[in-house]
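Predict structure. Input: DUF3159 domain-containing protein, 245 residues.
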Amino acid sequence: MTQPGDPRSGGEHRSGTDADQSAAELIGAALGGAARRAGLSPDGAESTQKVVWGAMGGWRGILESVLPSLAFVIIFTVRPEPLILSLGISVGLAAVFTVVRLLQKSPPAAALGGLAAAGAAALLALWTGRGADNFVPGLITNALYGTAMIVAALIGWSLIGLAVGFLMGEGTAWRSNRRRRRAFFWLGIAWGALFYLRLGVQLPLYLTDQVTLLGTLKLVMGLPLFAPMVAVTWLVVRALYPRAE
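Output follows.
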């Protein structure tokens, strides 16, 4: 039994804090690295338009995000049977984009990730025979991302703050700055709300098997909502970290 002032009592607390700090640093480094690869630069010199365009991946990123799902929705609407037709064309387009990325020496993980997700969704839909199941991975992703964003913000370790902190080279020091901590809290809540908004609109359509409307709203609530959120986030970051003249 430890007594007040016993070094062992504080040691256990510090050990837990150190573990939290280490985990936060690993997550922050990964998120910060992803932000860099998306085209975000710590010097803050880019225009907001350029930052948003880079985050979306330019024209290729937009086509990769939109065309497979759009092809599935159109073909399924025109000819729902056989299901393998619309799924095959959707996955085929994802495969073409993947091959192009590999030929252009893009990182294999980034090139294969989208194809793997599209293939898994298609296999699930073929297994169940429901076209709506092609959207299950997206629903799960929105639920997980939304939960992670909001929970992290509520416990004081905003994922947006972790990403920006390592992108800007200050690690987790932003947590001791009241203004930055508050801003990253609300940004985390806003991003979480975006993911939950998608889930709240799309899940009822999935449960009622409204495949065409579900696919359409998935596209409408994709990049058109993602881009403004990136712009707002970047503007807040520029205000929090004014660039030296």
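Residues 35-240 form one domain.
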